[in-house]
Amino acid sequence: MRRRISPATVIYFLVSTLLxxxxxxxxxxxxxxxxxxxxxxxxxxxxxxxxxxxxxxVDYDTAVPPADQATVETAISSFxxxxxxxxxxxxxxxxxxxxxxxxxxxxxxxxxxxxxxCKSACTSAVSVCTATFTSLxxxxxxxxxxxxxxxxxxANPQTYPTTACFVPPAITAASTNxxxxxxxxxxxxxxxxxx
Length: 195
Fold this sequence. Notes:
The protein has helices spanning 7-24, 27-30, 66-87, 91-105, 119-128, 130-135, 139-147, 169-180, and strands at 108-110, 113-115, 150-152, 157-159, 165-167, 192-194. By secondary structure, it is mainly alpha-helical. It has a two-stranded antiparallel sheet with strand order 1-2. It is globular and about 50 Å long.
């Protein structure tokens, strides 16, 4: 007799084995190519031309040159697909994690300077997902991810900045929707710059 696996078990497995490493091991460590660092010079006017991240999230000049965007797209597309597992369970969590992943993969080029997402963007995204991860009995792993809101680039380990950074509007919207008890998420624009 075959034993039937519940949907909750499948979601637990996917989140614990595939999604949590995304939170704990930031994208910059996964990408093999050199990555723009906070404060490095970048070329204004380079727009995101990919299809993996919603255009409403990466709605700013990016520090990633067009020639490197295909490599970044390939690296993050599987992670975005994995996030779809939680989309129907918690759309706010999904929106916040996608926004963080895309903002991390495509840092803002503001006035010719690479501007990374703020540490508060990471902690907000994790906060939005607390209830979902609690219901999946994965709160310990999420707490580990919260304490690891750091950028571990191959060249220069650093924490997410707390100044001269930006918060993607989709993270703010997801946090607001969660507080109000609404579903959804989203947002547009280049985010709020923190000086």
